[in-house]
Write a structure and sequence with these properties.
The chain is α/β, with parallel strands linked by helices and 247 residues long. The protein has ten helices and 14 strands. Helices cover 38% and strands 23% of the residues. Helix 1 packs across helix 3.
Amino acid sequence: MLAEERRQVILRMLQQHGIVKIQDICRLTDCSMSSARRDLQLLEEEGLLHRVHGGAQIKRALQSEMTMTDKSSKNHDQKVMIAQKAAALIQDDDVIYLDSGSTTLELARILDATKKITVVTNSVLSAAVLSDHGIDTIVLGGRLKNNTRAIAGADAAVELSKYRFNRAFLGINAIHATDGLMTPDPDEAAVKRMALRQSDKNYVMADSTKFDQVSFVKVADCTDATIITDDNLSPRIAKHFVNQTFI
């Protein structure tokens, strides 16, 4: 396979999965690891991807955000694993805040009425799922974002300030050891900050592709929440998160 053909294969893989591993490139294109690394270097120089340990991630603008349909199709198995870890933390009689996002939506899908809990959420998708499961659910009011089906803005943050939570489970777009927890939308960032402030225990649910990334608005420091992630987090990246609690 010609080098240009390989690079097109790499870009298609990134579009489909958001992340690509060097060993997968070698397997699919029958090339050496040195050739795969050169391809990634050239594509990074062209601004088409961001190299990470063992592969590369798709490069997006700081304020860009995928739709919920696109998010839900990526890294689904990892998101289910993270949701299962989060569900194990919830106890009877808990009042929890469930943020918008594809990973938090997976948590909504596995919760059921066997646990007597109350959920406050800014996600209309999660609210519908929770209602179908017979869970006592409160939906925040405010501006609805069409691409993510999240309720955001000042009204939502003010309403959220009226509640207290045993646990808050947040979605996040980017996690960086120095820049913290980040999201593209200032309105959503305000809601996330309020949720962290109103909760006794805070958790961020994020698969390993969210690490070593930056976005437009900082929500909080990484140490302001326990991060629930999958088993693919690179030790090279994890070592930069001093005093950080992971699950």
